[in-house]
Amino acid sequence: MLNFPFLKIFNQPTTLLGFPLLYLYFTLGWAISIGVIYLFASSAEPEQTEPDTEEQAPR
Prior knowledge:
Layout: H1 4-10, E1 15-16, E2 19-20, H2 21-43
Antiparallel strand pairs: 1-2
């Protein structure tokens, strides 16, 4: 996302809704990255462990 070709593509004197295209690229890319990380983290299932109900006596 921060490689030369992408920066060259979005570093244009064009604005969208009054914002420079490069700023929008960074902001939207950052937000999308956080969303993707959230989806991966929420889809990962934690390990299921059975709780020990019996107390172990000292040996």
